[in-house]
Amino acid sequence: MNDSESAAPPDPRHRSGSSPVHGAVDHRGRPVARRSSGQWTSAFFIIGMETAERSAYYGVSSNLINYLSGPLREKTAVAAAAVNTWAGVTSALPVVAAFLADAYLGRYWTIVVASILYVLVSILS
């Protein structure tokens, strides 16, 4: 018996010609149809968020030592140590987010929460 013989009957909620993605569900727990989910809308959203995130990262990192040693009057060595710590933490946080996504939140809610945090921080700063 091969995989096609043991497959479950198609879900009636999907349009004809749209096969569900095996093992994938949407944020409501429904099976995901390849035809009606993701695609370019999701890709443009992720590309836009990543572009904004990288722009913010490099914008902050290029000015952080000047800000710490200028207006905040920290010594250059202390400012450099703070920037290195900040760069290390921002490099390690994706590992923490990946754990939370896999263990608790799921891919969809992790992207939603991260996007809301990015927007709130952008508005408040």
TrEMBL record:
Keywords for the protein's UniProt record, in alphabetical order: Membrane, Transmembrane, Transmembrane helix
Protein name: Uncharacterized protein
Region (Disordered) residue spans: 1-37
Gene3D superfamilies referenced in this protein's UniProt entry, alphabetically: MFS general substrate transporter like domains
Stored PANTHER family: OLIGOPEPTIDE TRANSPORTER-RELATED (PTHR11654)
Record InterPro entries: MFS_trans_sf
Bilayer-crossing regions: 77-100, 106-124
